[in-house]
Known about the structure:
By secondary structure, the chain is α/β, with parallel strands linked by helices. The protein has a single domain (about 5-160), classed as 2-Layer Sandwich (Nucleotidyltransferase, domain 5), CATH 3.30.420. It is built from seven helices and five strands. It has a five-stranded mixed beta sheet. A hairpin with an 8-residue loop joins strand 1 (about 20-25) and strand 2 (about 35-40).
Amino acid sequence: MDLWAFEKKVIRKGFTVIAGIDEAGRGPLAGPVVAAAVILDRSFRVTKMADSKQLTPKRRNEVYEIIYQKAVSVGIGIIDPCEIDRINIFQAALAAMAVAVENLEPRPLYLLIDGKFPIYYDLPQEPIIKGDTLSISIAAASVVAKVTRDRLMERYHEFYPQYGFDCHKGYATAAHRRAIRDFGPCPIHRFSFKGVRDHC
């Protein structure tokens, strides 16, 4: 499978600066939603490149470093739990992706977005279902978003060690749900989410 197929199609339309966009952290009970936007040079090649969820943590971190070394630009967008509770996780994910694009330099001319929804940004764009397995740019963004969020959750573990954020990264594991029952929610929990609001 040619992971450059979508990028090549866009280049044939005349758009030469293409950003892939993805997010991580829609499902967890705690922590931010993090998006990444990545512009790659056409010479970019990484063996065993895939959607971040298909990589081992070790390989994901290795690919993350390669992307930062070789990408034309990487932009990050982070929406915190308070804002997630205010506007809902769907809107927060779209907002994080828009912020990630805004943080790119140079400005992209075309956006490839993981999923089926466009983002609120005034640029030509194409949502791609399962884009993180079909587009090299989106796959790169998937890795950057996942690693960035995981590292944030590991830092939060230092402040709230009783929840085990370094292990489950805020997802609704049995251990995490048990910790919420035992200690109540902490400031980085999503109070609008079932499994957290029940213990407020």
